[in-house]
Each structure stands twice: as C-alpha cells, then as structure tokens.
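Re: beginner question about structure tokens

> Can someone show what the tokenized structure looks like for a real chain? I only ever see the sequence side.

Sure, here's an example I had lying around. Input first:
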Amino acid sequence: MPSNGPPLAAASNSGSKRQLHSQSSSHGSHSSNRAHHGSTLKVSEFKHAQGVERLEQVQQVYGSGRGKPSALEERVARLEKENKLLRLRIEPIGEDARRAAETAARNIRSGVDDAKAKTLEAWHLDAWIRSFSFDAVVASALVKHLHQQSHSKASGLRERDYMANLHSLGSEQTILALLRDANVLEEIAMELWRGTATLSQQMDKRQAVEAAAEPPPPDAFELNTKYIDAGAHALAFGSLAMFYSGLSGLVGAPSSRPAEGMRAEHCAAADADALFSVSNYGTRTTSRVEWHFVARADAGREECRAHLGRLGIADGAHYPKEERLISDPSFKEHVRQPMPPSAFRSLGWDAVDEKLRAVGVAPLSEAEFIAARLYTGPCYRKYNAVLRSRGDVAALEKEWTSLCHGNLYTTTLHLIDSAITKLGKIKTVDTLYRAPGGALPSLFLSRNEFNVSGGVELAFMSCTNSREVALDYAVTSKAAVLFQIQQEGFVDRGADLSWLSQYPHEREITFPPLTSLEVTGKQVEGTVLVVNLAPRRHDAPTMRDASKSSKSSVCSVM
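And the corresponding structure tokens:
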C-alpha cells in the first residue's frame, strides 16, 4: 500500500506509535490536572501549547525533511493556526466588556421627575435578576446524572438524598464540574442577555410614548380605562378606619325603596342632565340617558327623546354612540346594544341565580342587576368619583363636585356593592391584573407600624385576567406598575360581570369598594414593578340587609 511518509521498520514504527500514545496521554493527563487545580494558562494558550507539542511528536516519528506533509501533520498545523486565531479572539473580550460597562454607566439618563422617583426606586438589579428562572437551570445541571440513571424525573426525596451523597463523596470541585459540564454559566449569560434586550425595548417604547406630540391610538386594553388609572392622583387610598366603617360610613345608608331611589339619583338629581364623557370609548351622555339605556332599553328612547336631542341625536333615533369604537372598523363589533333586563334571563341570569341558591345566597334582584349593568358603562366614572372623593385628596373632591354636582348616588352604590357581594360567592379563584398607571404611594413601598404594607381601595376596582395586555400597558404607563392580585379563600373574591356587561368583551372582574390590598411581595419584570397583592373585602351586607338597617335607623329617629 502506498505510504505518505518514508518506509520505517515495523518494530520501530510500532514502538514510535506506542511512544507517541504514551507521551500524548501523559501530557493530556498532566495538562488536565493543571487545569483542574486552577492553572493560570488561558484556554487559547493551553490549546496552542498542546498543538505545538503534538506537532513536535509527529515530526519525531515521521521526520520533517520530506517535501509533502502527512495528513496528521496537516491536521495539527491547522489546529495550531485555529488556536492562534482563537487566542486573538478571546484575549480582547475582557477589555471590551470593561469598556462596554464603563460606557453604559456614563450613558445613564438622569432627572427622573418626583412623581415617579419613589416608585422607580423599588427597581433593583437583584430584584430583576430574581425574575429569571436560574434556580431551575442550576437544579437541572446538578441532577442531570441522577435523571439519566433513573431514565425519568427523580422524586424530590431522591434528589435530596443525591445532593447529600455528593457532599460525602466529593468536594466543591464536584459541584463546579457538574455546573461546567452543563454550561450553566453560558445559559445564565444568555438569559441575562435576552433580558437586557427586553429591558431596552421596553425603555425605548416608554420614551417613544413620552416624546410623542400626540397620544398613540388606543388599543383594546386601553379602551377600558376601568382597568387602569391615568395619573398619579388616582392612586389615592383610604385608611383602615374607612375599611371598618363600611360603605354606609362613606356615603350613608340607602333608600328603603332601592329601585325608586336609584331612578331618582339618575333622573331627578342635580346632575341628571349634565353632559359628561368617558375617554375610553369617547361617549358623551347623561345620567338620565344611561338609566333609560339600561333599565328601559329601546322603550326608553321615546321617554328621553328630548334629552337625546340635546345630545345632537335628532328625534331620539339612537342612544349615544362610542365615537372611538365606530371610527375603527376593528372595534365596531364592541359597540354596546340596548337590551331590557328581561332579555338576560336566557343569557345567563337564570343560571347565575341557580348557582347563588346552591350556595345559600338570595338571587339577584332586578335593581341589583340594573345597578351592576350601569357600572359597566359610562356611569362608572361618576360612581368612582363619588367614592374617591371621600378620601383626603382635594383634587378628587373637586372632580366629584364638578362631575356629580353633589350627588352621592348612595342607593346605586349600595346596589352595585350588593350585586358584587353576591356574585363574588360563585366566582372561581384565579389571579387578576390591574395597571394603576400612576406612582405608588409610600404605604405600598414600606411597612407601617403594624408591619404590613398596602392600602384600602375606596372605589370599585375592575381587573382583567389577561396578564399580557395588562403588562403591555404597564410598560408605557407613568410609573410602570402592575398589580398582580391573587384571590384567596371563600370570601375575598371579585365578581364576574361579563355576562351582564354593556361591553362583555372586557371580561370584567370587579371588587367592591373598600377592598383592602395587602402587599405580599414585589418583583421586577423588565422595566415594570410588579406588586403582588392579597385582597380583603370589607364585611359588606347585601342590599336586603342594608335596607333593613336603613328602616331601623328611620324608626329609631321617629
């Protein structure tokens, strides 16, 4: 057979091969030991030295005086060249990283406004890092060999015993070797790098919104501003004293004739015909018109024809329309439709009543139904303005005076509260989300004298079960805060109003006024501060109980 090198005696060739194998093995073992015990050689230098020594060994066996190199010589020469290039690539990385870090530190923007400062101070690098699942990466690397032996995922007890055995059989070098074998550091670096990309994108999006001369077009989530609060002033919370006083402590006792009382609050009060608007859907309407829309549906248009005319609707042809919905073809299907309460019997009301009876709760009355449906439309703005004005923020009291002309909507608020209290008893427990929009007050960022943090939401609190859309809005909100609300237990649950809502696509889950929100934890996701909250409902009576209390109070006065 042709040979690439000069003919050698068989014995000499065999001996040389054994010598090459012995030298190579000895060198590899020696080098591995040096690397294992913390050799100061860089990876590139080590591979380069290895390649040179192997080339010298090959030359000793085959000779270096011939013209054409052997295949093995070519391979080793190629390895030597690759390692030279590798050394050129690796050595500048440390210096480049240092320069990048210094440049990043110099490019930090300053001048965060006071309204956001306290909330943004809650963003810490360690909290951001905790948002990654590095514990799972490390755990997977450590138990890799255990799972390979058992050919399936081992139980927690086996994993515990395995880790204890590692301590008795090795040293910290064993752990280090397992982590290196699974490239854990590389995985962590890659996850962090992806995280910085998300962080950068979110900051760019926020800056683009802040710099825009006009607000961006609304998306499906922003259209429902009951899920959000625009402006730091909206993040005003009540005290524990208000929580214990109940709704009657805020707005007084309801009428002993709930249906008539609610109608009077919408059709005979000082603000009954005062025009107001809601920014989410662009609807301009009045309290009187809204009551007829919900309680009387199409039959009500004739009764309030003159009032519709003042809204620019000739001959009362239709109820006020949502300008921001009808202007966009993709949202036209969300335009509300007038439907009499009786029509909902076959659309879920009867089924809801059956569930309520099954848990020992009285069915929903028609007055409670009308009040709850009113809340899902434009009137929510008035109701929440009343409740938030009961706090100590002057701007909120001024807004209520301007919007409601002194009307407290007392009976209506009690009816909504009663409906939510009932419906909450049949709500499935899940996690809900709300984007507050403004800066958090200090009581959410630090513990009080009772070693708890949180506050009491004075108004109705509408939430969504879509984390994705809530987080997307929070990214561009004024202080980048997301409430993550975990419902717990049999009592502290919101009510699903989607089946009776004017806008069922919103899938609205609502908590009653005076819900206490206790902070159970905080974490960072990108630029957003996620506040974990446990809701606690006040001991709300149903409307029947409230009416009895009202009658009792009247009798005692007489």
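Each token stands for a local structural state, so reading them left to right follows the chain. DSSP finds 23 helices and ten strands in the chain.
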